[in-house]
Structures are given as C-alpha cells and as structure tokens.
UniProtKB/TrEMBL annotation, chains A, B:
Keywords: DNA-binding, Transcription, Transcription regulation. The keyword Repressor does not apply. Pfam families: TetR_N. This is TetR/AcrR family transcriptional regulator. PANTHER family: HTH-TYPE TRANSCRIPTIONAL REGULATOR BETI, HTH-TYPE TRANSCRIPTIONAL REGULATOR RUTR. Residues 35-54 bind DNA. InterPro entries: Homeodomain-like_sf, HTH-type_TetR-like_transc_reg, HTH_TetR. Residues 12-72 form the HTH tetR-type domain. It comes from the Bacteria. It comes from Arthrobacter koreensis. Gene3D superfamilies: Tetracycline Repressor, domain 2.
DNA sequence: GTCTATAACTAGATAGAC
DNA sequence: GTCTATCTAGTTATAGAC
C-alpha cells in the first residue's frame, strides 16, 4: 500500500507540517498556483514524502479543507463570542494579509474553492461544498435564537435568510481585504451587524403593525 | 516589432474573438487554469496568432479586464436603472452559471483577480485594482444623491460607506452563486437593498434626534 | 517512513515559413 | 497577419535505494 491507513486520529507531525505549508501557500497562490514542490519545500520534506502522506494534490487539498474547518469550528463555536457576524467581518481585516492567520485563512481557502468552478468533480471542491453546508447550519443554530419569535412565526425561514445575508457580507469583506481596500474593517463589521439588526427590527415592526391592523379589524 | 501599435481604437475582429474566448474560459477556470492553447482553440486561431495580437498571457488578461470593464460601464451607467445594488445582486444569479453572460462575467473575473494575491505585480491584477477604484467612484456618484443631505452634513463619507457595503454584498452573492447556493437571488437583492436603505434611514433618524435635542437645549 | 532521480506531460512562449 | 513546429521550464507523480 502506498498510503497510511489512519482514518481520523489527530494529525501527526509531518502530515500537519505539510497541511500547514499547503495552507500558507494556497492562501496567496490558490489551488493551481500552489505546487506540490513548493509545499514540500516549505514543509521541509522532499516531494516523495508528501506523496507518501497524501495520494495526490486533490486529496491533499480535500484534507486541508477538513483540517481547516475543524480549526475554524473550534474558534467560532466557543461560548464567548456572541456576535458571530461582527467577529467574522472584523477577522477579514488581517486574514488575507497575514498568511499565518490560520483561523481566518480557512475563509480565504473557502472563497477560492467557491470561485474555481473548473474544479467541478474535484474531491477538494466537493469537500468544500459539504463543509459550506455544514458551516451554514452551524451559523443558523446561533443566529435563529436572536430572531424574535413573532417574526419566525410568520416567516420560519427568516433566520436562515439572515445567515445568507451575513455570509454574503463576510465573503464580501474578505474580498475587499484581498483586494487591499483601505477601509476600517471594524467599522464595517459594526455597520453590517447594525444593518442585519435593522432588517430584523423592521420585519418585526412590520408584523407587529399587521397584527395591530388585524386586531383593529376584528 | 512583434506587436500591433493600436492604442485605443475599437477592438478588431480577431482580437475580440480572442478576448471573448479568454473571458469564457477564465470565468470557470480562473487565471492559472486558463491556458493560451485553449484560448487559441476556442477563438479558432492558432497559438501563434494569439501571441501576435497579445505579447503574453499577462497582457492578454490586462486587456481583457479593460475590455470587460468598458462593457460593464455601458451596461450600468444608462439612465434606466435606478437601483444599482438590487440590479447587481440580481445579476449574480445567472452570472456565474452561464459563461455567455458577458455583462456579469466581468464581476466574476474581478473576484478572481481580487483573490489571487499571488499575482502581485502582475499587469492584469494591477489593471484590475485600478478598475476597481474607478468602478467604486462611479458607484459613489450614483449612490451619494440618494443619501439625505442631513446625513452627509454630519458624516460626509456616509455615501461611500454605503457603496463599500453594497459592493461587499454584491461580491458576496456572486460567491454564493459560484458555490451553487440554491437561494432566491431576487429576494436577496431586495433584502440587501432594504438593509442599506434601513441603515440610511436609521442614520437620518439618529441625526434628526440629535438636532431636536440640540434645538431643545438652545 | 524518508529521500533522490526521473518519467510523463503540459505550460508559456518563439522562430520562421507562408 | 496567419499558422506549424518546436524549445524550455515547470508540473504532477512514481520508482526504488536507503
């Protein structure tokens, strides 16, 4: 066999080094732009070793996505951070500039795989699409409690909609960071949170108004 | 000389065919993923001809960005479309799916160049960053008149902030489209427009309140 | 498990006939 | 201006010594 059989034990030393190297490179070079030779060089191992640990480039990236997602989950599911959106957008500020920022590197990696549609059928991209769905559900679980029950009663999908909006904003600000826009990301993190909040309130008020109208009619 | 000297005359037949081929491929394959051989094949010309018209891949893409931007400007500066943000986001729906959708292909191309930071110094990426700035200013000119004078008096940059937010949203929904999210883009186009609108109203109300307070004090 | 050498292939780019 | 043949360098991936 040309491949280790470990399934899900915690990533051992050299494998982790390879994944970290791949991540560092991928964040600035993308999928095609990252070469196995460079990954090997940066990890301090020869190419042969990289191919001993991972079947091929595709699989290396598929595992990289999983590896990053675990880190991201650990960082973003703690009980401390109450404001997911604000935190995510604020994180975009340095995320794309500093290749060492692992917690946020995942998001950049994700954007790359979202955009590179040529990778249809590619193991890594399929893996990403799975992860994207899982991440979405995690966010829904955290956002839904913040939506008033009266709103959810009328539009049960409203919480999910706010997550879609929040994710679009987060993605958008990562793009802005990648493009080097000189904006105050903290300010926009607040502004974005406020905008979503305003949308929820407006919806609640609208429903309230309808209820009043209905009450008045009866 | 190995290169035509036309500077800014309207793109002649074969050059246009090459640019169109490059665009179609780039939208799904990205910069690295698009090969000169494929561009040649799709344009119906041999590789040699492509290199006669364009010095190299870098310059081909730099001109592609300019070429697309001109089209985008023509599509998005007419007097008809009053709601820029709503229109942009709604456009993202099909933009990433149909490689023939030229008007929106530009935005995908833009995202690719925004993310591919490895291309630092690359002519095409530099060109894109210029275009990004110009596009921003065009949007500011169209959004600023919609912001109440009272708000601009207190925060002259508020219009620009709304454009930053709007662009982030647009970028974000293009990502969603690229990832194949099954969402109702029209609905989110409306929701996004409403969110920005709500933010402006909230700001205006806040300022109004302060003015009243100031009036009461005097 | 690690490392070297190299095979098999594909990329961007050019030379030069027409 | 167009097209073919080809060069060079770099890519993924493997074979096989250690």
């Amino acid at each position: 066999m040309t491949r280790r059989s470990r399934a899900h034990q915690s990533t051992p030393g050299n494998e982790k080094a390879i994944l970290e190297a791949a991540l560092t490179l991928a964040v600035t070079a993308g999928y095609e732009g990252t070469t196995m030779a460079e990954v090997a060089r940066l990890s301090g191992l020869p190419v042969g070793s990289v191919y001993w640990h991972f079947n091929n480039k595709e699989q290396l990236f598929a595992e990289l996505i999983e590896y990053c997602f675990e880190q991201w989950k650990a960082d973003h599911t703690g009980p401390t951070n109450r404001d997911l959106l604000r935190r995510s957008i604020a994180g975009s500020a340095g995320g794309s500039v500093d290749p060492e920022n692992r917690a946020e590197a995942f998001w950049i990696l994700a954007l790359l795989f979202a955009l590179e549609k040529r990778l249809a059928g590619n193991l890594a991209r399929e893996k990403y699409l799975d992860v994207r769905k899982e991440m979405f559900e995690l966010m829904v679980q955290r956002v839904e409690p913040q939506v008033p029950a009266s709103v959810l009663a009328v539009d049960p999908a409203f919480g999910r909609k706010m997550v879609v909006l929040g994710r679009a904003l987060t993605d958008g600000f990562y793009i802005a960071a990648s493009a080097g826009d000189e904006i105050d990301f903290m300010e926009f993190a607040d502004l974005s949170a406020t905008a979503v909040e305003a949308l929820i309130q407006r919806k609640a008020a609208e429903i309230e108004g309808n209820l009043d109208a209905a009450d008045a009619e009866s």
